[in-house]
Amino acid sequence: MANIGNAIPEKTIERLSEYRRTLLSCHKQGITHIFSHVLAGIHGITAVQVRRDLMLIGFSSDTKKGYDVKVLIDFISNILDSPQPMNVAVLGMGHLGQAITKYFNGKGLKLRITAAFDVDPAKVGQTIDGIPCYHMDRFEEIAEDLDISLVIVSSPTKVAPSLVLPIINAGIRGVLNFTSTPLNFPQGIVVENYDITTLLEKVAYFVKESEENERGSE
Amino acid sequence: MANIGNAIPEKTIERLSEYRRTLLSCHKQGITHIFSHVLAGIHGITAVQVRRDLMLIGFSSDTKKGYDVKVLIDFISNILDSPQPMNVAVLGMGHLGQAITKYFNGKGLKLRITAAFDVDPAKVGQTIDGIPCYHMDRFEEIAEDLDISLVIVSSPTKVAPSLVLPIINAGIRGVLNFTSTPLNFPQGIVVENYDITTLLEKVAYFVKESEENERGSE
DNA sequence: GGGTGTGAAGCCGTTCACAGCA
DNA sequence: TGCTGTGAACGGCTTCACACCC
């Protein structure tokens, strides 16, 4: 039995997260209402897309002044956030791990980075950006103690495969993998692989494409 | 007039980049042939998907021993890579910028990070991981000199909007943006926005979803 | 007029089902 | 038998077109 009228498409979820960040920034600037086409413009999409997304989550505005920023923030948050905060661990506290940690610090999100893991003796035992760094050997034990449910894999690509088993054993539910190895987990664990190289190669390909088209049509 | 039988879907391009990385690793290990279902397994997708992707780029194998790894690498490279290497600049040499630079260093790709830009006096004028770091004020000038065509935006989110104009003026063709502000560019400039927060929030949402479904079906 | 909400159409990407081949 | 290649069906997401409402 499904909980509510759920089944919100993945793309919509991504955009909701983006809308919310924009809305929070509007809210901070004192903007109280926003039109769909303005929100769309900021994100480089169409107004229909915005309205459709809001329709899918059952949001509707009663006014003609656009959407109430504060109300919409709360509505989206109600969709995206868990009732209780989720704890996140960063696996690999190199530059990427530290960059991610800094991103999240003080953002006041429902997702909290509460632990980091590494094997470098210079980092283990330290507190980096306010996050304690433990040795990877102790991952399963500490993940359980701290009730970690999500991990970000920012280790060197070479060691990433060796993290799969500990992650499974620790009962982790979601993985965000930034290494160049696709990681496979059994059903029930949510995984997103984002290889930076692939992202850049994609951009490069479409640049190449558009240049070829320009040349072709002149 | 279109160049070749192009129009390869975006998703396929992403996967081709991923396949290639896997294939390169296979090649290094001395594996000469690979079945579609093996390649699929590594990437957590179906064999049909792999075959369909290869069909779309016009690749076909003549043997029954699976695909020839070396030949396929060259074929994919011919699709993805530009004839001449593309130069990439990193805007923002904080942790994220340095992480990205390290990723690319010595990967021997057709994409080369050839310059970094920052405003921190401690970084400007230095060489970091073999990449010279210039002051952002000199971006337009140096981008032209070094024939930069792609940029990676890894600056703090707050300054990201101020980079848009210099990027346009410098004639940059592709942008990979890792900040939390969506950046909009005029038609003709390829942009990919990848906000790490959004990626994590998406994983968190689907974890929440799957937990609710489990609870619902017990 | 200028905004929102939405059924219906259209497009894109994935999967099915099966033919063909060694 | 076990693999590859592919037309056709399917499903998810986006866009069109238009009704409705200050």
What is the 3D shape of chain A? globular
| Poorly predicted runs of chain A | 1-5
pLDDT averaged over residues of chain A = 93
Find the biggest chain interface: A-B, 72 and 71 residues
- Oligomeric grouping of the chains: homodimer
CATH architecture of the largest domain in chain A: 3-Layer(aba) Sandwich
Proportion of helical residues of chain A: 40-55%
Radius of gyration of chain A (CA) equals 21 Å
Q: Based on DSSP secondary structure assignment, what is the total number of beta strands of chain A?
A: 9
Order of helices and strands of chain A: HEHHEHEHEEEHEHEEH
β-sheet strand percentage of chain A: 15-25%
Number of helices of chain A: 8
Q: Order of strands across the widest beta sheet of chain A?
A: 5-6-4-3-7-8-9
Briefly note the structural class of the backbone of chain A: alpha/beta
Structure explained in plain terms:
The structure is a homodimer of 218-residue chains. With 218 residues, the first copy, chain A, is α/β, with parallel strands linked by helices. Chain A has 2 domains: 10-80, Orthogonal Bundle (Arc Repressor Mutant, subunit A), CATH 1.10.10; 86-197, Rossmann fold, CATH 3.40.50. Helix content of chain A is 43%, strand content 18%. The first copy, chain A, has helices at 10-28, 36-43, 47-56, 69-80, 95-104, 139-145, 164-169, 196-216; strands spanning 33-34, 67-68, 86-91, 111-118, 127-128, 131-135, 148-153, 174-177, 190-193. In chain A, the strands form 2 sheets. Chain A has a 7-stranded mixed β-sheet with strand order 5-6-4-3-7-8-9, with helices on both faces. Chain A has a two-stranded antiparallel ribbon with strand order 1-2. In chain A, α1 packs antiparallel against α4 (69-80) and α2 (36-43) packs across α3. Chain A is globular. Residues 1-5 of chain A have low confidence and may be disordered. Chains A and B meet through α1, α2, α5, β7 and β8 of A and α1, α2, α5, β7 and β8 of B. Chain B binds a DNA duplex (22 and 22 nucleotides) through α1 and α3.
